[in-house]
Each structure stands twice: as structure tokens, then as C-alpha cells.
Amino acid sequence: MRVFLLGAGFSKPCGLPLSHELLSLAIEAVGSEGRQQRLRQIREECAQCSGLNVGDVGIELFLDHCDRLAELWRMAQHFETLGRYCGAVSWDTAIEIQSVSGEVDKKAKGIVADRSLTADLTPAKKLLGQLTPTDIVLTTNFDTVLERAAANAHRSLSIGLPPVREGRVLRCQHGPDAIRLLKLHGSVDWYLATRRACVGELPQGVDVLYMKVDDNREGHASDTRSGELEHDFCLTRCATADAARELVGDFFPDHRAAMPRFGGTKQPHNLSGLGLLWAAAARDLRDATQLICIGFSFSDQDQLIRLLLANSLRARTSPPSVMLVDPSSCDIARRIGHLLPNPKLVKSPHQDVNWTSVLEDSPV
User: Fold this and answer.
1) pTM of the model
2) Are 113 and 120 in contact (CB under 8 A)?
3) Both ends of the chain: CA-CA distance in Å?
4) Highest mean pLDDT among 170-179, 205-214, 330-339
5) Is the peptide bond before 253 cis (omega within 30 degrees of 0)?
6) Parallel, antiparallel, or unpaired: how do β-strands 179-183 and 157-158 relate?
7) Rounded Cα distance, 299 and 266, in Å
8) Residue 174: what pLDDT?
């Protein structure tokens, strides 16, 4: 069984920005000139701390830096002679940093959503043509490039979640020839909606992907809140923005929230159903005969994926064969050699790869 792990470099030739490009676009999209100036200043500080050029600071590193910077200001509150919410004190500066960084995160997700709709599907379709129903695709990308390419090529994809209980069945059923696509960080067309919104008649173009059922809550009213996000909210997929707006109402567009925040300290447990996808990915990595990483940098902000890999490989008697497809595959190999030793390196952008030749000796 082959497992393909797709990173941001996979979507780059389709028109999606890389991390450092996305940060620049998101800062430009922030409305206030004063806020833009503040964000550029923080980016310069981040570059200085990290030993990078300013233009090389990506959105994940930037938002992690904002979290640490805000924490320093929260500690500075201990020296203030006024309370946290009494005007221009250190705590107020921490709140301001968290506010502007949150706006960057929100703008970035909007950019990914918009670019997904206008993406060039040709590079994705080239890889898709080589995939078989026994292949598994794991990705941390939010975009819908692969889904749109599959629809365009009349290929079927499965999201890797079981049919929804409580009398609901997914409207889009997948046949045995479907390729399993596990989106470990969610998707720009996934939204969280209350259970109450998901048990009645759904707006056109909405599918319920996951609804958690707890044995101790059987028979409770659908609008009874437990205080547990994975139970109180369902994972849905909305074909259009209008469908999402009708489903989540006043919360739109903030409920483009079935994606964790950019940065190294992601918390996918807050997104209903993602735990099942991570567990499935762990099983697939344990069983894989070959792991093919395309455009995945394994940066310091990918620690959760590294942990997933480490735990899965530890459960194996022997490692899978590994292939790294990226112009910077040599640097990536040095970065993760302790996890994935002796990988085959393909030092080309994936859109230039002759997949038939590269994969012909791959175990299926």
C-alpha cells in the first residue's frame, strides 16, 4: 500500500501560495494601514529572532512568534500598578497582538479558499492519474485542489469518515474505487455547525460528515449542550458559501473554522471528527509499503505530523521505503533523516516529474 503525504509544495504550482507568500498576502489584506505596519514590524522582529530574511518568514512561524510575544507582554503586566483592563497597560498590548495575529490567520484562510476556486488543476490531475483505489493520500493542506481535480477527471474521493449515525446518511456515497483522502487539518469547505442545525432539513449543498454519538447522551435533545466541542458541533461540508451562510447563520464566515489555526501549536481535537482522521492516518502509516512525500517540508511547525510519523514507525518491524519529491529534497532529508532514513530523492517540482517512471517500481 502506498501512502502519499502532500504538503504546501504540492499546491504551489496550482496557484496556491507557500507559507511566506501567504503571510505577505494576508498582511496586505488586513484593512488598517496602522495594523499592517504593526504586523510588518513583528515580522521583522521574528526574522531577527530566527536568523532569517524578512521575506522568508512564513505564516506558521510568524503566528508562533506572535504567541510568544503576547506572553512576554502578559508577564510584563506583573509590574503594572493598574489592573489588566484599566487602559493602556501591558495586558492591553498582549490583547492587541493576539487580535492582529488572529486577523492574519483569518485573512490567510480566506486567501486559500479564494485561490482554491481559481487553481490550475493540471499538476494535480497529473498525479491523480497515477493513483489507484489502494493508495492513501494524507495532506495538511486546507485547499480543495485535489477534490476539484478529481471531480474534473471523474475520479471518486473518500474523506475517510464513517457514515453519520442518528438516522443521517451522507448524501455523497463513494464506490469501492474511491481514493481515500485524509485532510488532517480540515478543509476550506468544511464548517462546524450545531447538532440542532444538522438534524433537521439541510440547506442544498450541505453534507454532514461527522456527528459524534455518546452512549451516555442517547435520547438527549439535539440542542442540549455538553460543553464538549467534539460533541456539540458537527463537521459539515458546504458546496458553496451561500450554503454555509444558510447553515451557520450569524457565525458565517467565522465558521470557516473547521481548520486549526496556522502555527505550530495546532489543536485539531477542537474540530469534530478530525481525531478519526488522525487515527486512520496512523494505521495507514503503520501498514504502508511506501511513503511518498510531495512538497512537504517537515518544518519545525510540523511537529504534530512528525510525532504521528514517529509513533507509527515505532509500531513497525521495518520502515517503509521513502521517497521525497521536492526541489529541496536534500535539505528535507537532512531535516528528517532520524525519522525517515535513506529516502529516495526526486529533486524536481512534482509537476515536472514523470510519475509513470518514478512509480513503476513502487510496491502497490
Assistant:
1) 0.90
2) no
3) 5
4) 330-339
5) yes
6) parallel
7) 14
8) 62
Residue type, 191: Y
Select from 84, 16, 87, 72 the least CA-distant residue to 42: 72
pLDDT per residue over 50-99, tens digit each? 999 999 999 999 999 999 999 999 999 999 999 998 888 999 999 999 99
CATH 3.40.50.1220 domain residues, the chain: 1-16+120-187+261-364
**Residue located via cell numbers 496550482:** 14
In the structure grid, which three cell numbers stand for residue 64, read together? 508562533
Say how far apart CA 28 and CA 273 lie, in whole Å: 33
User: CA–CA separation, 25 vs 267, rounded Å?
Assistant: 24
Give the Cα separation of 187 and 256 in Å (integer): 9
Angle at 130 between CA 326 and CA 209, to 5 degrees: 90
Separation of alpha carbons 177 and 133, rounded Å:
5
Characterise 15 by phi-psi region: left (phi > 0), alpha (psi -120 to 50), beta (else): left
DSSP for 21-45, written as a single string = HHHHHHHHHSS-HHHHHHHHHHHHH
Residue 85 makes CB contacts below 8 A (sequence gap 6+) with: 91, 92
Is residue 42 within 8 A of residue 67, CB to CB? The reply is no
Of 3.40.50.1220, 1.10.260.40, 3.20.20.150, 3.40.640.10, the CATH number of 1-16+120-187+261-364 is 3.40.50.1220
Q: Over the stretch 34-59, which tens digit does the pLDDT of each residue have?
A: 999 999 999 999 999 999 999 999 99
* Whole-number pLDDT of residue 201: 79
The x, y and z cell numbers of residue 5, run together, are 503525504
CA dihedral 307, 10, 265, 321 (to 10 degrees): 0
What 3-state DSSP class applies to 349? coil
More confident residue, 113 or 202: 113
Q: What cell was used for 61? A: 512561524
Nearest Cα neighbor of 191 from 163, 172, 173, 210 is: 210
Which set of grid coordinates corresponds to residue 60? Answer: 506558521
Q: List Cβ neighbours of 150 (8 Å cut-off, separation of 6 or more).
A: 128, 156, 157, 179
Tell me the per-residue pLDDT of 150-193, one tens digit each, with 9 for 90 and over: 999 999 899 888 776 554 444 445 667 889 999 999 999 998 88
Identity of the residue numbered 48: Q
